[in-house]
Design goal:
Length: 162
């Protein structure tokens, strides 16, 4: 997906929120405070969008409650954008570049990067284990070829490595 396609797929905050909700609550919405599975959406002008109330403990939550994204004042779109850059860069993204690309301060970018790496940890709820067809970038396996006088070993696509 390129950046234009990303923007089309997520034209507004609601689209981003729906996406995060579908990933976080794949088996149904639950309260991050008490894990109860019954809750309702709070509506009305005073309610923030995506705010739910738990029917068991009565506390309120959104999809980001108790995740590293919690208490951020950044729009969900910026989180999504930062995640997009981070997962699409095989060498990692510095907070300097992240700040520039996402349009936030470098301090925010540093925090964002840290939180995203935390959410990408193997036991994270946000990014579940891969399943189905998984594609990897190409990778050549094997050490440095033995030195043979006059022979130049090809690198990259021309290599004889597996
Ligand atoms: Zn609860």
């Amino acid at each position: 997906m390129n950046i234009d396609q990303l923007r089309q797929r997520f034209p507004n905050e609601q689209a981003c929120r729906s996406f995060f909700e579908s990933v976080m609550w794949q088996k149904g919405r639950y309260c991050p405070h008490c894990r109860a599975e019954k809750s309702w959406l709070l509506k009305g002008s005073s309610a923030r969008s995506g705010l739910y109330q738990c029917s068991q403990c009565g506390r309120q939550f959104t999809v980001t409650t108790k995740t590293p994204m919690h208490s951020t004042k950044l729009p969900l779109w910026k989180w999504l954008l930062a995640m997009y850059y981070m997962v699409n860069s095989s060498k990692g993204v510095s907070s300097v570049f992240l700040a520039r690309w996402v349009g936030i301060s470098q301090k925010s970018a540093w925090k964002l990067g840290h939180a995203i790496r935390q959410m990408m940890a193997p036991d994270s709820r946000l990014l579940p284990a891969l399943s189905g067809i998984v594609e990897l970038d190409e990778k050549y396996i094997g050490g440095k070829p033995r030195f043979e006088n006059g022979i130049t070993h090809k690198r990259g696509k021309g290599t004889k490595k597996q």
